């Protein structure tokens, strides 16, 4: 494994063997690309999950050798757990709710901060069959991807990090919603690790269930 603090050990032109948006890729092959990219850079990943209940972490650790690049997974199902384990500000739950851009961003950034990782992805949504509302119907899922640049030997970072939150409304039953969220989480990670920018246009590519923030009903 390369030195995570050595910039020369992280080739900037790394690309996955297949495009991150390729619909023909299996989940296993996408995880393989992700593993290759993280190992090549000597960086690590953490997850913060609510409605998926650890499914993303389980998917990642199904791959042998994942301890080389996967650090930990936080399953913070309750609001209390999100506050306690990830440092999500309590006022957000009353102001915007647990299924929101602000909360998943805080979850992802909190996971990076608590785990000391460079990459984190967070998921919070309404998997159903109940619990939906007009503003947040069943299938509504917010995901956030956070990147924190590796620290140098002196503990400083050469640039600011980046966080993207995107909203989706996945069709299907509870299992289908959870599975779809995991697939989009993987696509977002592969996109950034292959040199792509995190933005609304990119989020649209990862699933036709993307629901732009401009379409929010609240």
What would the keywords be for this entry?
single chain; 218 residues; Maf protein; alpha/beta; 5-stranded mixed beta sheet
Task: Explain the overall architecture.
By secondary structure, the chain is an alpha/beta fold. Helix 2 (55-61) links the parallel strand 1 and strand 2. Helix content is 35%, strand content 16%. The chain contains 7 helices and 5 strands. A 5-stranded mixed β-sheet has the order 2-1-3-4-5, sandwiched between helices.
Short description:
35% of the residues lie in helices and 16% in strands. By secondary structure, it is of the alpha/beta class.
Number of helices: 7
- The main sheet orders its strands as 2-1-3-4-5
CATH overall fold name = Maf protein
Q: Kindly report the average pLDDT value.
A: 88
Strand tally? 5
Topology, element by element:
Layout: H1 27-41, E1 45-49, H2 55-61, E2 70-75, H3 79-86, H4 91-95, H5 101-115, E3 119-125, E4 140-147, E5 162-169, H6 174-193, H7 200-206
Parallel strand pairs: 1-2, 1-3
Antiparallel strand pairs: 3-4, 4-5
Helix pairs in contact: 1-6
